[in-house]
Each structure stands twice: as C-alpha cells, then as structure tokens.
Design a protein that fits this description.
heterodimer; A: about 250 residues; alpha/beta; Rossmann fold; four-stranded antiparallel beta sheet; B: about 290 residues; mainly alpha
Chain lengths: ~250, ~290
C-alpha cells in the first residue's frame, strides 16, 4: 500500500549550501507528525518543496500514491495539502474574517466577470461563505474577533488565525510551520488543544516545532532532520531519549 | 453653462481613468505610470474609426475598450515578473514609447499636430452634438464604470486583489490563481481606460499626443492620491477636484505664459502635500 505522504530522495542545493540531502520519509494519515531538528536542518525547505513553492534538484513527493512533482502551489492545495508560514504572512489590512474568506476554495465571484454580471448570485454565495468562515473562526476560538483587523490582534490570536486560514482551504493534510513558537503558556495550551481537535476532525498534521515539551505532548510520530537528512523517525519518547540526537539538537549542552 | 457642462464631462471621463488607475495602483498594487498610454490608444482608435466612417461610435468604443484590455494586459505583464520599483521603471519606458509613437506616426495619429475633426458620437442614429447631450452620455458611462468597480470590489474578487497586494505568496499558498487575478485586473483597468479615451476624443473632437503623455499619467496618479486610494469615492472625488483647479487658477490673475507651468506646480505641490500629511487622500485608504 502506498504511503499517505511520501518524500523520496529529495536534494536541494542553494549555492554552497546543501539544504536537503537525500531526504526520505513517509507519514501516515490521521496522525500528528512533528518535524524537528536544529536550525538550518531543512525543515522549512521541506515544506516549500512539498507545497510546490520550491522545485527540488532531484527527488519526488507523492500524496495518496499520486506524484506531486511539477505541480504548482495552487494544484497542490486542490489536492488537499495546505501550509502556514513561520512568519505568519497574514493579510494585515484585512479583518480576521476576510483573511479566512480569502482562503476559501473555489468561490463564485472571484473573477471580475462573475462578480459584475451575476451580482445577486455572488452576494448569495458570499453570505454562505461568510457563514462558513465564521464557523471556522469559531472552531479556532476567534469568533468574537472576526471583525477585527489583523494588526489589532494579539500574536497568539494571529497564530490561531493562521490555522483558521489553512483550514479554510479545505485541505486534509496541514503543514504547520511553528504554530506554537513565541506563545505564552496559556496560548500554547490553546494551540495544542486545537491541534488535537483538528486531528479528531480527521485532519493529518505535519508540524515543524522547536519546543520539545510541545513535541512530547502532541506528536504521534517525530521526524528528526539534520543537515537536510532524516536522522531518525520514531515516537517522541524514543527521539528525546536518544543522547546522540540530543547532542545534535542542543549543540552538546546536555 | 456650456463651460460648466464641459468641466463635468471631462471630470466624468477622468473618473473612468481614475477607476482604472485606482484598480491597478491602489488595489492590486501594480504601480503603473502608463495608464495615459492606454487612454490615448482608446482615443485614437475611436477617432480613426469614426473619421473614416468604418465604424459608428458605439462599436468603435467597444473596439477601443477591447484594445485597452489587450494593451493593458501587455503593459502589466512585466509586473508579473519584475516587482515593485523595477516595474515602475518598465512602465515609465512603456509610457515614453507610447508618446513617441503618438508623436511620430503622423499617418495614423496626425503626429504632434493631432487629429482634428473627430465627429461627435452617434448613438443608434441620434447625434450627440451638444455639450449637454454629451453630459448625459458621459454620466451613463460614469454610472456603468462605477457600478462595475463597486460590484467587482465588493465581491470575493475585490478581496482577492487586496490580499494579493499585501502578500502574493500567501495568496498562492491558499490555492488561489494569482496570475489570473492580476491579469484580469489589468484587463478591467484597460477596458476603463480605453473607453475613457474614446469618449475623450469624441467629446473634444480633437486629440493630440499632449493629452496622453507622462504628465497625463502623473495627473492620474495625483487624482488617485488626492481623491483617495482604493475606494470608489476617492476615484470619483479626485478628478472633480483636480480638474476644478485650473478653472480656479484662471480666476487668479496670472499671465497666460506661466499659467500652464503654475498648474503643473500646483499639481506637484498637492501630490507632495497629500503624501506627507494625508496619505489616505480625501476619501481613501493609506497607499
């Protein structure tokens, strides 16, 4: 049986830097997989390759047994994989609700002709989509902030909004780039609970995370990446217990 | 009265151009300084068609709008590859090229002397000769233009374009077709500018390259800045205010030899003052 997501033989070089070095792994459906590793291990590069923003020098990505090679980001989202960004990349001049609406797939009225020549249909569809967006905001706990401009949201709220936006795409495999970094303890708990809830909704998650405590709490499986190569794959306990990996991760401090 | 009417007609035509510029520069963030070139092409097409009697006014106007669409897509194509500041330079070059063609292609455009004697519009057999009649025509055009702009901007399309201005990459990550959205915005802006050109030539019955040069493009940008970027109200207010300015200056007793220069200086000062003290214009959002 083919894997849910399979990455094989990825190589990517940026000038003198080998960002990905024969990276191979597969992840299973319905699980939270954490991608860990020291800075510069190639975690975000992997995300960029899977989501079609970066073309690998060699190697393949397959989703549900079908190759994603040469697909545009747009096609990959349609296949069911969407991502968030480490630096959020929210639309700060739009409201929280509009940020979510902007990500909802295949809306009527997204071309000028439809919008101009079928205004009533557009408005009706829009009302339906707005309800959808509100439900998504409700799901991540931002319903009462829907009309707020992003620049007025707290950092924690912005992080939740990123998750709402990626949910709005309708993707089933979510690639989250450090969803918990920089959060206070309370907000951190919120995000972890939310990730678990997404999993029980049937989503699969691939999460880049630095905080080992977060990893231990949410990860069903951990991928340990070092210098663009997969060093180890296993449960959080096994990865944390491995002294060799700890030395790489913490630079020999422990 | 005619004087007031012709001010209104010109202002309404410039509102169409304001919509075009606001859509591209304000909403999508494609900083084009070559909208006057598209405006000019529209004007010359309608002039050529109606003067030679190959097409009557309405089909000629449709043709002008169509050519505006095609031309504006061509002009903004570089913006899909070069971003921001570099595109301004490219767009600047396109505008200079257009002016050179308007000025030197004497067989087609009459060169620097322009094309006199453009017949007044003819709407299904009814001639529109009086300024007051033309005012009705341009008001209908203005209404249609504003309606299209409003409908497109309140739809998901408007939100998509705003999102693109803020973060193209994030829009692509949401699975949206950024290329199509940008090209269609250029097309819509081109249709506005092309038909505005057609109305302009038919109204004045004369066109020459000076109406479609870089100064004209900068005037359009000034209208958007003063009126207000990204809003319908801003696109409407800007042209009315800026076109009233020369009339007001005419009331001040300055020698005719420096009147044109004085007008340009006032435009320049306004642009700087608004950018510094009121970047959102009279009725817009911060650019």
């Amino acid at each position: 049986m083919s894997a849910y997501l399979e990455v094989s033989g990825l190589n990517k070089r940026f000038g003198g830097l080998q960002a990905l070095n024969d990276t191979n792994f597969r992840i299973d459906q319905g699980r939270i997989t954490c991608l860990v590793g020291p800075n510069g291990a190639g975690k975000t590069t992997i995300f960029n390759v899977i989501t079609g923003f970066l073309k690998p020098d060699t190697g393949h990505v397959a989703f549900r047994g079908q190759s994603l090679d040469g697909h545009t980001p747009q096609q990959i989202v349609r296949r069911g994989i969407a991502r968030t960004f480490q630096n959020l990349r929210l639309f700060t001049d739009l409201t929280a609700r509009d940020n979510v609406l902007a990500a909802i797939a295949a809306q009527f009225g997204e071309s000028p002709l439809g919008a101009i020549f079928r205004p009533f249909h557009t408005a009706r569809e829009q009302a339906r989509r707005t309800a959808e967006a509100m439900a998504t905001l409700e799901h991540v706990g931002l319903a009462d902030r829907a009309g707020e401009y992003v620049r007025n949201l707290s950092y924690g709220e912005q992080k939740l909004l990123c998750i709402a936006r990626v949910l709005a795409t309708g993707a089933e495999l979510l690639l989250l780039d450090e969803p918990a970094s920089g959060l206070s303890a309370g907000a951190l708990d919120n995000v972890m609970t939310l990730l678990r809830r997404l999993q029980s909704d049937g989503k699969s998650l691939l999460v880049v995370e630095h905080n080992t405590r977060v990893v231990q709490r949410i990860a069903d499986e951990v991928l340990f990446l070092h210098q663009g190569h997969l060093m180890a794959q296993g449960t959080a306990e096994a990865i944390v217990a491995d002294p060799k990996l700890a030395e790489i991760y913490f630079g020999g401090a422990i | 009265m005619d004087f007031l009417y012709s001010y209104l007609v010109l202002a309404e035509i410039y509102v169409l151009l304001g919509l075009s510029t606001n859509l591209l520069v304000g909403i999508v963030g494609i900083f084009s300084v070559s909208q006057a070139a598209v405006f000019g092409v529209g004007a010359y097409i309608v002039a050529a068609c109606t003067m030679s009697d190959t097409l009557s006014f309405i089909p000629a106007l449709v043709l002008a709008a169509g050519c505006g669409v095609a031309l504006n897509i061509l002009i903004t194509l570089p913006s899909l590859r070069v971003s921001g500041d570099y595109f301004v330079v490219t767009s600047f070059g396109i505008q200079l090229l257009a002016t050179a063609i308007f000025t030197n292609w004497t067989d087609g455009t009459g060169g620097a002397n322009g094309l006199p004697g453009i017949p007044p519009p003819d709407i299904f057999g009814l001639p529109v000769a009086e300024t007051s009649e033309f005012l009705m025509l341009s008001t209908v055009a203005l209404g249609l233009g504003c309606l299209c702009f409003w409908l497109a901007m309140r739809a998901p399309y408007g939100r998509l374009l705003r999102a693109i201005r803020e973060d193209e990459l994030a829009v692509a990550a949401a699975g949206k077709n950024v290329l199509f959205a940008k090209v269609s915005a250029a097309a819509l802006a081109g249709a506005f500018a092309g038909s505005a050109g057609g109305l302009y030539g038919s109204f004045l019955s004369f066109v020459d390259p000076s109406s479609f040069d870089l100064d004209a493009s900068i005037l359009l940008l000034t209208m958007v800045v003063v009126g207000g970027a990204r809003t319908l109200a801003g696109s409407v207010i800007g042209p009315f205010v800026l076109l009233a300015l020369p009339q007001l200056l005419a009331l001040v007793d300055i020698p005719t030899t420096i009147a044109a220069a004085a007008r340009q200086s006032v435009y320049g000062l306004l642009l700087i003052a608004f950018m510094l003290f009121r970047p959102q214009g009279l009725a817009g959002e911060k650019l």
